[in-house]
Design a protein that fits this description.
Blueprint (H helix, E strand, L loop, with lengths): L10 H4 L7 E9 L3 H9 L4 H4 L3 E6 L10 E8 L2 E13 L3 E8 L2 E12 L2 E12 L2 H5 L1 H6 L1 H20 L3
Antiparallel strand pairs: 1-7, 2-3, 3-4, 4-5, 5-6, 6-7
């Protein structure tokens, strides 16, 4: 613990930053080039058509999708409608992109990486969640219970994307 007078004692002094971070990674092989997979993955206007559980997308910034693009995604999650505001933190065609969101006292980061393969593209998606407010810390034990359900949601999203892309190539 840090006892210097000019620094407050924080939660990080008691529980390590990474110990409180939940991480889930899923991957899928898609029979299309990284460019096609990437372009589909960042085409927000098509997400409701590509991914079954996404009901609507509202883009909140002007211009093409890029670093700083902010949007609201409304989807069915755990049988209920949920809306989250997300931001593109980085974007590098055709290698990947990073989305972030702040909700329910947590900071969420989703990193998508595209890896070329002899048959197309291996798409890796890593979802990380870290409490950043009291509410997030209070619900931390429940977050671990939802890990399997979140993994299934991510896998379903990727399966939808794969089917949509492969039906068009």
């Amino acid at each position: 613990m840090n006892s210097s007078p000019d620094k407050r004692i924080t939660t990080h002094d008691f529980i390590g930053y990474h110990a409180a971070m939940a991480s889930i990674t899923v991957s899928i092989d898609i029979a299309a080039s990284p460019e096609v997979v990437f372009d589909t993955a960042v085409d927000l206007s098509n997400w409701p058509e590509v991914i079954d559980d996404i009901l609507s997308i509202e883009i909140l910034t002007n211009g093409p999708v890029g670093v700083g693009t902010v949007f609201r995604e409304t989807r069915t999650m755990f049988g209920k409608e949920a809306t989250e505001e997300m931001t593109f933190e980085s974007i590098e065609r055709p290698h990947g992109y990073v989305l972030s969101a702040h909700s329910g006292g947590n900071h969420y980061v989703t990193t998508s990486r595209l890896e070329p393969t002899p048959t197309g593209t291996l798409l890796h998606v890593e979802f990380k969640s870290r409490p950043e407010k009291l509410l997030g810390w209070l619900f931390l034990p429940m977050g671990w219970m939802f890990k399997g359900m979140i993994r299934k949601c991510l896998q379903k999203d990727l399966a939808c994307m794969k089917a949509w892309i492969e039906s068009r190539t």
